[in-house]
Amino acid sequence: MNILGQILLFSAWALALLCFLAGGFFGFKQNYQNNTLLRMGTILVGIVGLASLVVLGDLFLTDDYTNQYVWQHSNAEMPSIYKITAIWGGMDGSMLLWAVLITFFSAMVGLTSSNYSPQLIPYLVCVLNSSGLFFLTVVLYFTNPFRFLQAGFIPTVGNGLNPLLQNPYMAIHPPTLYLGFTAFAVPYAFALASLLSGKMDKEWIKYSCRWTLIAWGFLTAGITLGGHWAYLELGWGGFWAWDPVENSSFLPWLFGTAYLHSVIVQEKRGLLKVWNVFLITGTYGLTVFGTFLTRSGIVQSVHSFAKTNIGPIFLIYLGLLLAVAVVLVIWRRKELQPEKKLESIFSREVVFLINNLIFVSICFATFWGVMFPVFSEALTGTKQAIGIPFFNAINVPLFLLMMFFMALGPLVAWKKGNIKNFIRQAQLPIISALVLAIILTWAGVPSPTAILSYSLSLLIIMAIISEYHKTGRQFQKSKNTSYVQGVATGWAAHRRKSAGYLVHIGVAVVAIGITASMSGKIEKEFSLAIGESFQVGGYQLELNELKEIDNSNFIGLKGIVTAYRSGMKLHATLHPELRRYKRNGESTTEVALKMSLKNDLYLILAGLNEAGDRASFKVYINPLQVWLWFGVLIMLFGTLIIITDKKLAIND
Amino acid sequence: MKFKIISLGALFLAFFGLLIVQGFNDGTSSVYLPSELMAKTQEMKRVRVAGRVAEGDVNYQVQPLFKLDFQIKDPDGKSAVILPVSYAGIKPDMFAVGRDVIIDGQYVNGVLIAQQLLTQCPSKYEPPKPKEAGTATSSPLTQAQQY
After folding, report:
1. Taking a C-beta distance cutoff of 8 angstroms, is the pair B34, B83 a contact?
2. Which residues of chain A are within 8 Å of residue B63 when distances are taken between CB atoms?
3. Which of A116, A167, A247, B145 has the most neighbouring CB atoms within 10 Å?
């Protein structure tokens, strides 16, 4: 089976090379007779790639330790589901998954592109396969998971998967993230195919729109799953620490979100064409950069893979991506001229432009935060560390500014905004935001930044509701129906826009959750003997019992703590655990968590004193924490509504 | 129109520049070894120190407040300098003499007041090398059990 895997991998590589060359050749010759063949070839690359992944899965399921990678990451006792997830449990397999997903998405484009203009197809195939070819080359020559175990005999027992990875979240979080990363290769290929072929009308934007949203949706989901896992498993009460690996997934998200918006300006008004080429190249490039960052060992992080020698080839590829974009933009500079002029500073185009500027700035600051320790040591020789305050000091004001323009966006017209209309529509949202600010100040919310953030969130939501209302009224009048029906028809008639605003409502809800957790988090350390209790943030925590645990896997200590609300009403019984694994002596905390709409009660058992009669605890009270997860669900739901719109690729 | 756009951009860039300066002021700290820090005479407001917990007294008190006093030395063992550390928090479960720690805090009167104390895992997970499977001293079975 190992041999079969190698053969399939090599075949996928060779086919991708063939498609890449043939696509480029026929595109250059403007020969569109073989388009079907090119598309079939791309589909075949995907099928063969997928087959190689299936073979690796089969090697895991059959515990085939002639394969080095299987031996390193699995053993026979593991449940089948973790044998499957062990495929991406290490460097080699995760790179294979990455490469295969790119060929898979390319195949999906091959499958759905029969109606596209023939001029686009050869170059589309060429660029799609160039991405596949690069990652397959890396897999084949640097991180091949189909290597034989060179031990001189076949071991009977495998090494097993890192216990931290034997977790449902680790099963689903990496593939979701990879789906997001790799799907960005598709809109990138569309943008380049349009530049290469000279077919530079709106067609490529329409066809790539759904792909951009699929990529963005998976990336959003993947990042959130990572944060949720960290919150539940790592026991520090937070979900985001601006860690280099977290940032490496956030950078393409920021660029991708900027692109998502600015490409609308190109579609509607024919502006920002050069800018969009760089944004989508940047987005795809940053997904590649993230791979490089997490796997080359240049930055220290809790998540990173073992050091490898794939750094140089990734840097060369990144340089190539940038160079190609620059050359193409210079070559096509005449066709990339804006079709129209900006008519007014008070227009939606300008709001989009500012939004773009902010996204790119956040991305830039975050990038520097990641790379600063590397550069500063290389340039000055002294070691510098960069902490969470760096990212917060820069990104929080920028995000707040962005929220202001998010609220403004729907209320300002394209081309030239009408001040009277704007004021008529904006007054209610602005008044409600101001009222909220006054109420919150009066209620004693201490942080002005938090008050600003809550008010801006309400401003966003109210502005969108007023927009829904306005459209609904128009439909109610023209169709002569009830108000509710008018709103519903209006919503459906502008499905893409309406659902886009729904995503914005989700962002506002996320902002409320993040603001609450950043400004209102309570964090306390305390120790209790059995029967004692501790008062914190409106809760009374009473230690009832301490139990020792001793099983085959770990020894541990379990606390049984009852939490009461005011008036001694039972809130929850919590069971925090401290475990020490017998196999490697590493210890982990099992967080006890009681979620509610108001706040999360998050309790960690930190240890026992020397006499053994007092247990130490750490408690976090995270206000409005579930709002964050719920807001992301709204964002994803809105994205799904747009993706599933059948008219998406046909008209606005 | 062009003028308006450019001034808008300039305004934004100025704002962004201020934020960057603020970020570097708030968020960067120099990284020292214990011996390098002890060589400083002035107080240091924000430092990060990478050291190893030295042999000797480790005082940990739970009541009435958490307090952990210990000493660290250079991890490479080249210098005999010992830096006293004081931390007002729970002793991390993995904390022990000989473990490597990363400390963020202030350096005042020859003592490192730790705000954050991170104990590094004794071993970072890395897949074993193939040759480890067939060393003469251990059969593959015991090798796997040891891991």
Report:
1. yes
2. 527, 614
3. A247
**pLDDT tens profile B100-111:** 888 999 999 889
- The identity of residue A92, as a single letter, is D
Does the beta carbon of A237 lie under 8 angstroms from any beta carbon of chain B?
no
Alpha carbon distance A346, A264 (integer Å): 17
Choose between A412 and A652: higher pLDDT.
Answer: A412
| Average pLDDT across chain A, whole number | 91
Instruction: Identify which of B16, B19, B29 has the shortest CB distance to residue A385.
Output: B29
CA nearest to A373, candidates B31, B121, B95: B31
Q: Among B43, B98, B90, B46, which Cα is nearest to B72's?
A: B98
The distance of B145 to chain A (nearest Cα, Å) reads 8
End-to-end CA distance of chain B: 69
Report the residue from A385, A390, A527 with minimal CB separation from B62: A527
Beta bridge partners of A549: A556
**B117: its two tokens:** 């104390």
Using CA atoms in the order A139, A145, A151, A153, what is the torsion angle rounded to 10 degrees?
-140
**B109–chain A nearest CA distance, Å:** 23
Q: Is the pLDDT of residue A649 over 80?
A: no
pLDDT at position B144 is 31
Inter-chain residue contact B30 with A357, CB threshold 8 Å: no
A241 in contact with chain B, both atoms CB, cutoff 8 A: no
Residue pair A88/A74 in contact (Cβ under 8 Å)? The answer is no
Give the separation between CA A619 and CA A612, rounded to whole angstroms. 20
Provide the pLDDT for residue A1.
Answer: 82
For A189-251, what is the HEC assignment?
HHHHHHHHHCCCCCHHHHHHHHHHHHHHHHHHHHHHHHHHHHHHHCCCCCCCCCCHHHHHHHH
Minimal Cα–Cα distance from A152 to chain B, Å? 7
Question: How many angstroms from the chain centroid is the CA of residue B43?
Answer: 19
CA distance to A91, A120, A510, A582, per residue, from A517 (Å): 34, 48, 11, 36
- Tell me the helix, strand and coil percentages in chain B, rounded to 5: 30, 35, 40
pLDDT digits (tens, 9 = 90+) for A462-471: 999 999 999 9
> For residue A584, what pLDDT is reported?
65
Q: Which amino acid is at B88?
A: A
Q: Where do we find the tokens 């982990």?
A: A588
CB A590 within 8 A of CB A570: no
Strand-pair partners of A577: A558, A590
CB A489, CB A479: distance < 8 Å = yes
Q: How many other C-beta atoms can be found within 10 angstroms of the C-beta atom of residue A472?
A: 20
A331: Cα within 13 Å, side-chain hemisphere: 13
For residue A384, the chain B residues in CB contact (below 8 A) are: 28-31
Distance from CA of A294 to the nearest CA of B (A): 14
Q: Which of residues 29-88 of A touch B (CB under 8 A)?
A: 68, 71-73, 75
Computed over every residue of chain B, the mean pLDDT equals: 80
Closest CA to A177 of A143, A227, A112: A227
Q: Which amino acid is at A269?
A: R
Nearest residue to A557 (alpha-carbon basis) of A531, A590, A595, A522? A590
Place A381 in a pLDDT band, splitting at 50, 70 and 90.
confident
Task: Name every chain B residue with its beta carbon within 8 A of the beta carbon of A392.
Answer: 26-27
